[in-house]
Design goal:
The protein is α+β, with helices and mostly antiparallel strands and 614 residues long. The protein has 23 helices and 14 strands. The chain folds into four domains: 212 residues, no CATH class; 97 residues, Up-down Bundle (Taq DNA Polymerase, Chain T, domain 4); 130 residues, 2-Layer Sandwich (Alpha-Beta Plaits), CATH 3.30.70; 136 residues, Orthogonal Bundle (DNA polymerase, domain 1), CATH 1.10.150.20. The strands form four sheets. It has a six-stranded mixed β-sheet, sandwiched between helices. Strands 12-13-11-14 form a four-stranded antiparallel β-sheet. The chain has a two-stranded antiparallel sheet with strand order 7-8. α5 packs parallel to α7, α8 packs across α22 and α19 packs across α20. It is globular, with a radius of gyration of 27 Å. The two termini are 44 Å apart. Keywords: DNA replication, Nucleotidyltransferase, Transferase. One of its GO terms (biological process) is double-strand break repair. Its EC number is 2.7.7.7.
């Protein structure tokens, strides 16, 4: 059963269950729901202000904890098509309906989980399954080579109906964003069109496209996994990552000195800046790279940039304080007191995750630098009393993905080891695995990222001889990119086509060297896209599978690329570890088939602090 829930630009929800989605088993429940909500709406009108205490009829077994209130005048009813519909519902009303329907395991259809789900989560709702129209539209547009087209509900509806592209002013705000006065928003939908009706049209169109494009069923798996990942992302933001503010404050004071007003240098940075001035014999702005480059030039040292790896090669008394300044200034700017004030509330770090925010399908974050928690701050990530953190990281995920994609049996055998690079070194340099592990890693990264110079070229040649199927796979992907083509991930993520500027460079009118360089650059992109996007497929399915398996009240609280953190009561920690192992096995079967010989180890550590897992 599909249940469509859509929110208008005023924040009111509409709900629609197409008649064809109902079964004989669902009918009596929904009939009860229609009567219950109808009676409740009448009572609300009598009570005034939409308030009604003791909403047991809709809450159902306490699934919406402490709800007791249904706000708004929305009423579930059957329309002329037999569909069950409701309009102008509050989030609390949708939560109450969801509590009754969730035991039937419907698939909820939302125009955008990132935009619409937070309000429902705030009312205590946790949906098991969903179809995120925006994420799915993005995947389908990319599949058709239309990455640059809007995936919003209004734009998708306009395409289905043959309308002009809409003007949209809605946006997803970060939690800390303040609304502007007199900031009108428009969904871009035709006037008078209910968003749930538009969502039904778009859903039907997406089903037709999936039927046409996806005979293997892989793209459907990606659609389900990406949508479930979107649910997990919103839930992780709501639950937050356990974060000890007191430890963070103490660490900042220890490293930077007492807190100073915004715009001022903390004492430690001020002292380092003075040492830098003394080393150069004149004032230098250590926050300005050009100032640093000029200072070294005046000292007779020509440097191409002020980057740390460049400075480390220089013999000058300013280098040591400069490097220390850079490290502490980065901490102060990215995770200092201002960051702590903005992003940590109630000892929980609550970032906003963006599912598929990178073209390869990797996640991004909207503010908070969620995907870049410095090692020095990981001690702040501490489980609550009586709870544990289960930290798991997929070991060398992308080389294993390449082994599975390419069907290279020899590389699959290498993947049986938990440390693939040591096993690879033993294959490339028998008898000297430990010594050659760094070279083996360079060889594999060269294959996936396109390095061909110096030591990388020699090791890549050796890799090509030992693992021809794996190397051919990425080289074919690179060749496709060099021709201006696109490549797909295992489940169907599609690389964007080159830009018009690229086509002009490589179309024969530009200089030959420039054209060749542009062609190779795009080939390097598609070479890595095939592997990295398939890794994003695998992790999306893993998140969906693990989220479904976890016992309550354990929950996902952090995810970055190929690492997950679960916050769990201590007595459930071993169960969570088992769930994780089973989720990895299930994910591999779903993505690569039951006969996949590649091993995907994801060792888990049960710890009190994130720092203890590293």
């Amino acid at each position: 059963m599909h249940v469509i829930v859509a929110r208008d630009s005023a924040g009111r929800f509409s709900l629609r269950i197409p008649d064809g989605e109902l079964t004989a088993e669902d009918g009596p429940v929904l009939d009860d729901e229609v009567r219950s909500v109808g009676a409740l709406s009448r009572d609300c009108a009598l009570a005034g202000d939409g308030a009604l205490a003791g909403n047991a009829a809709l809450a159902g077994d306490g699934a919406v904890s402490g709800s007791g209130v249904l706000v708004g005048s929305g009423l579930l009813r059957r329309d002329g098509t037999g569909a069950v519909v409701a309009t102008a519902l509050s989030a609390e009303a949708v939560a109450a309906v969801a509590a009754r329907l969730e035991p039937r395991r419907p698939r909820w259809v939302l125009p955008s989980v990132e935009r619409d789900y937070p309000a429902l989560v705030g009312c205590g709702v946790r949906l098991r399954r969903c179809h995120d129209l925006a994420l799915v539209e993005g995947l389908l547009l990319a599949f058709a080579g239309a990455h640059d087209r809007s995936r919003s509900l209004a734009a998708a509806y306009a395409r289905v109906r043959g309308l002009a592209p809409p003007v949209e002013t809605e946006h997803v705000a970060a939690p800390d964003e303040q609304p502007a006065l007199f900031d009108p928003q428009s969904s871009g939908l035709p006037p008078g069109l209910d968003p749930a009706d538009a969502a039904e049209v778009v859903l039907a169109d997406q089903r037709v496209r999936l039927d046409r494009l996806d005979p293997s069923g892989r793209l459907r798996l990606l659609v389900a996994a990406e949508s479930a990942s979107a649910l997990a992302a919103v839930e992780m933001s709501a639950d937050g990552l356990p974060w000890r503010s007191d430890r963070h404050e103490a660490l900042l004071t220890e490293l930077l000195g007492p807190r100073v007003p915004a715009g001022s240098r903390p004492p430690a940075l001020a002292a380092l800046a003075q040492r830098i001035d003394e080393a150069f014999g004149r004032p230098v702005n250590p926050d300005h790279p050009e100032s640093i480059v000029r200072a070294f030039g005046r000292a007779g040292l020509a440097v191409p940039s002020a980057r740390a790896h460049v400075l480390r090669r220089i013999d000058h008394p300013a280098v040591a304080p400069l490097l220390e300044y850079k490290e502490l200034a980065r901490l102060h700017a990215a995770h200092g007191w201002a960051w702590l004030d903005q992003w940590v509330r109630g000892d929980r770090f609550r970032p906003v995750y963006v599912v598929g925010g990178v073209v390869s399908g990797r996640w991004a974050s909207r503010g908070g630098a969620a995907l870049q928690i410095p090692r020095v701050l990981r001690g702040c990530v501490t489980a609550d009393e009586g709870w544990k953190l289960v930290v798991a990281d997929a070991a060398q995920l992308e080389p294993r993905i390449l082994a599975a994609l390419s069907g290279d049996r020899r590389l699959a055998e290498v993947s049986r080891s938990e440390d693939l690079y040591t096993s690879l070194a033993a294959e490339l340099h028998p008898g000297a695995a430990a010594e050659h592990r760094p070279n083996a890693k360079i060889a594999m990264l060269s294959a996936m990222y396109g390095g061909t110079a110096g030591e990388a070229a020699a090791t890549l040649a050796l890799l090509r001889r030992r693992f021809p199927a794996a190397v051919s796979y990425v080289e074919n992907a690179a060749a496709e990119g060099e021709r201006g083509g696109t490549v797909r991930s295992r489940l169907g993520r599609t690389s964007p086509p080159p830009s018009e500027a690229w086509r002009e460079l490589t179309g024969g009118d530009g200089a030959e060297d420039t054209a060749r360089r542009a062609s190779r650059d795009w080939g390097r992109f598609t070479r890595n896209f095939a592997v990295q996007a398939s890794a994003a497929d695998w992790t999306a399915v893993l998140l969906a599978t693990l989220r479904r398996r976890l016992p309550e009240p354990a929950g996902l609280v952090f995810f970055v690329h190929d690492e997950v953190l679960v916050h769990t009561p201590a007595e459930l920690a071993d169960t969570v570890v088992t769930c994780l192992s089973e989720a990895v096995d299930e994910t591999t079967r779903l993505v690569f088939g039951p006969a996949c010989p590649v091993r995907f180890p994801m060792p888990a550590a049960v710890v009190d602090s994130y720092a203890d897992a590293k």
